[in-house]
Amino acid sequence: MCTGFLLFSYCCFLNLKGYSQGRRTDSIIRSQIDPFVQPITETDSLLKQIKPGKHDIHIPAIKRPEKLALPAKPAISFDKVSISNEGLLDQNYFAGGYYYLNNAQISGVATISKMPLNAGFLHQDLFMDGHSFKNTFKVSFDKQAFLDGYRKQLQDQLSIDQLVPKDSLLQSMKLKAEAGIRSRMDSLMSDYKNSLSKNIPALDTLKDYTNNANVNGIFRNLLSAAYAKAIREKEAKLKQLQESNADKAQMADLQKEIDAYYKLVSIYNQYRELQTKYNLSDLQKKLNEETAQRKKQYDQLMSKPSSVKDLAQQNLQLSGFEELLMSIEKLNIGQHTISLSPLSLYSYLTNGVSIEILTKKKRYLFLMAGKETDLNSIQARAIFTSLYNNDHTAVGLRMGKGAIADNHLHFSLFNFHQSKSYSDGTTLEVPQKNTMVMGLSNRFEIGASSAVELELSRSSAVYKDAVYEMDTSTRRSAFHDIISGSNLAQGLAADIKYTGNFREEGLNVMAELAHVASGYYNPGNPFLSRGSNTGTLQVKKVWKKKFTINARTNIRQYHYTTLASSTWWNFSHLIDLGLKLKGGQQISIRYQPTRGIQKSNGQRILQNAADMVTVNLNLQKILGTTIYRNNINTIYNTSRYANFSMLSSKTLTLTSLQSVTLGDNLVYWNNTYTYAIDPSVIAYMNTSFNTEAGISYKAGDNVSLSSSLIYNSITGYVKQVGGRQSVSATIHKKIETSFYIDVKLNIQESSSYYGEPLTANCSIKYSL
């Protein structure tokens, strides 16, 4: 039924919207200035108008006489099929004893009618005071692999000049400048040969006067110091002959040679003046910048999925099925996670079907139908929003204009139906609950560097059991409740977010405000805190790619009850200063204060407070093929807790992570020492020391190993020694296996809380 719902909705969507035929991508629009009607004297002013990389560039549709046909592919093909099994043995700190988790997985890639699919099946066995197992599978459309084939085809057929045309103004200006220089130089050289009847072979090879290095090189070789010295000697000899009124024929020859030299110097000086006059060097520099910018734009086009889609649809011969696949952004079947936006679906785990479609005209549609299964035990759920069972089915859609990551306007509607079951370990019957969440999302850009995201959501939950008869008697349905005006404020959530990325200034800004009413309930986002107001501001500034300042502040207000006079406030701030040093080294200083305050009946009660100062230093030294690295971290933390009669804890932690790379081997020594200034009965607030020294090395081409020794101690509790060993091996290029074991032995124990932990992991993977 779920699959039929998705297909029916998608068909309706196509019939209503349709596909556009051959949408042109944006074409390059530039001011068309005909340089041939401009006097040469205006070259300088025109040149100042040209800034490669600063113009708004768009991509033209390349019109070809006939669309290129892609090579035929088999209807079904298989690739990268692998089978793996992994077992994990570890200590259970919550229930005591050990557990063993075994994962058997089959994964692979199949292409069906040019549609690449990633598929996986996972069988999990958990042995812990009994045996339980779970099977999950997933099939997903690999859009990246799908586009890679078209990307390669486009790169083979479309050159940079076709896809990103050259700057016509720059090209025509260069041609005009080159023509002017060439015409003047040809005239000078012709006059030189005719008037002096002198032919220099080196100058005969000089045909391109626009090649600065070539022209300068030839003239500098000709007008050498030796040549200049010989001319000075001939000038002295000519002066002697003129004073003695000697052989006139010899004087004429000397004069001709001297005139040829100075004429050659004059030609070279005029060449340099022509270069300055026509700005040839600046033109060439800008042409080089433009070439690099065009190459960058071409690479960006070929890497961006949306532009690859547009170019493939315009220039390749695609079937109707391939056109359909071009519109599918995501397709998942089985267990998978969905993240759309905070007030619709966000980190939502489902077992079902979801599809995301974006057409040529940027029409967007998302459909989903599936079921979420709650964890078997509430002890295993670290964070939860309800003590009741959360098993439910869900269906919904999101539709509108534009992709989620781009400018868009979307409407969403999701329905969650919670099943009737029993909570683990209790006899309390869990009521059936129907929840509907409706939302509106809008994203728009402000200029080229800023964007605003707005989201508004309303939810409604209706209980179906007799014990909650008051709901069924006053509310007809969740949908009726969500569109009605009753209790409107109690079921609302809103979020507004601003992001600014100012690259030239090296500045990033993010500001966000969120409100979640106490009656708002959205199973699609398990991380929302009901009855809360949140404000966040983050600023990051970089100076000359070396010095960075990152500041963030977060303020949250919680209403845990319906009493307006009782609220909880949480203040969290951060300021981080970073400096990059030579040789890849860097240093940073961070300060993080947090405060938890309860306001009740006009009183302000400090519940908890913490201040943390961190100094981090990354050191690196390269000596030949040997690389030494050391990450040194110093943390001072002070905490106070009202629930423990304002228990105060102050700790100083020193961490050093050292490693030396010797060819294929890595030797490391990691140390962490925490000094508790105010020891307490809580173990993690006492002085502790952890050290591990080991080596990672290879035993042949296909075997990698890592061995280390460990020592741990917590003052007043335990002292441990142990070791870790891992082995990874590849057998016959198809079988990969790994083994890991972590064993610790208590040499001194003051509390039974600490056992002697053992962790082991073994896996094997076979690839077809």
UniProtKB/TrEMBL annotation:
Residues 224-251 form a coiled coil. It comes from the Bacteria. Keywords: Coiled coil. This is Uncharacterized protein.
